[in-house]
Amino acid sequence: MDGELRSMRWKVEKEIKLLPEDDTDRLRLYAELARVDAKWAEHSDAWAKAGIHEAVRSGWQVIRNQVQGWEQEQEKGEPLEDPEMPLTRLAIRRAHYYLDGDSYVQRTREENPGDPAIAAVDREAAQLLDAAGTKMASAFDRLMDAAERLPTPIEDQWLRGKPSHLITSAESTFEGTRFCSPVVARVRALEKRWVDDLAAVREGRKNLGETLAAEALHKWPSVVAAIPGVVVADGFDPSSARPGETVLFRAVYNRAGWDFDGGQYGFSMRFHGVPLGGVYEPYVNAALDHAVYELKLAVDDHTEWDLVGVVLGPGTIKERAKKTIRIGMDTHEVEEWIPVPCLRMRVAALRAGPVVVGPPA
Question: pLDDT tens-digit profile of 90-138?
């Protein structure tokens, strides 16, 4: 009841009170006021209801406008690529939020139980959620159909990481809906299969590498014995070496790519203070490539190697160096590769982890 009507009612009631309490007109007028109050309350409730209905409908209409066109979206993407249907994804999220997350809508439902207008909008929201969720879940199923036919990407770390990203996307898209668990479970199953396959392959490679490394240790003495003129490096002086000298180096570490530039020499180290640069014979390169690229075994340059090198003569090798430079008030440490004198060699035989190779017979 607005202020003007409330003031008029107060004046009428004031005049009625001047009549005797048992006056029939007084009793009749009070009854009439009660009827007016009831009628006003009825109209007020109806007006309030209409406002509530309009707020609910207009709020839902905003969501419908935001996702308009979702039905026409076509999925895109390759296996394990997130389905590119932004409007469908938005429809799922907004419909779910309307039904279960919007505190205003939830409070309106609680204050108006069984209201048919509110229930009608809820049904429409549930239908949108079901239709958009079914469409998006089907898109995930189709991309998983293709993904499950792929061989396990043992060497492709980038592809192996895609299920994890897809799980995050599915959980975000379907959060709180009935679609979430089955979609996520299917992607997780593929991810686990790939992890298990990779672990089995790595275990197999590890076992093979250990077996071949043991065989290499056993074969190495006979490989060295077949090379004429080999001298042990214990007494070798690289500063006075002559071309053609054949030297056996035991338990050394390959520093190519670490202390020295790996692009110049496949093997390098410092021996008695002198840098050595070793060029692999073609058959040594072939043996290393077979182990690394075909058998997929680790040839660890942090473990000890044995090799036979044939001196070629003096040369240069690029050595890693660090230099501090000043820019304004700041100092920065930079790396550079500086050419230094070295002794060049041909690596004629090698034992490195699972690799053992010498000159062809």
Answer: 999 999 999 998 888 888 888 888 888 889 999 999 999 999 999 999 9
CATH number of 67-197: 1.20.120
- Three-class secondary structure assignment of the chain: CCHHHHHHHHHHHHHHCCCCCCCHHHHHHHHHHHHHHHHHHHHHHHHHHHHHHHHHHHHHHHHHHHCCCHHHCCCCCCCCCCCCCHHHHHHHHHHHHHHHCCHHHHHHHHHCCCCHHHHHHHHHHHHHHHHHHHHHHHHHHHHHHHHHCCCCCCCCHHHHCHHHHHHHHHHHHHCCCCCHHHHHHHHHHHHHHHHHHHHHHHHHHHHHHHHHHHHHHHHHHHHHHCCCCEEEHHHCCHHHCCCCCEEEEEEECCCECCCECCCCCCEEEEECCEEEEEEECHHHHHHHHHHHHHCCCCCCCCCCEEEEEEEEEEEEEEEEEEEEEEECCEEEEEEEEEEEEEEEEEEEEEEECCEEECCCC
Domain ranges of the chain: 3-63, 67-197, 226-357
Among 3.30.390, 3.10.350, 1.10.8, 2.40.50, name the CATH number for the domain at 226-357. 2.40.50
In contact, 340 and 317? CB cutoff 8 Å = yes
Please give the pLDDT value at position 31: 66
The pTM for the full model equals: 0.72
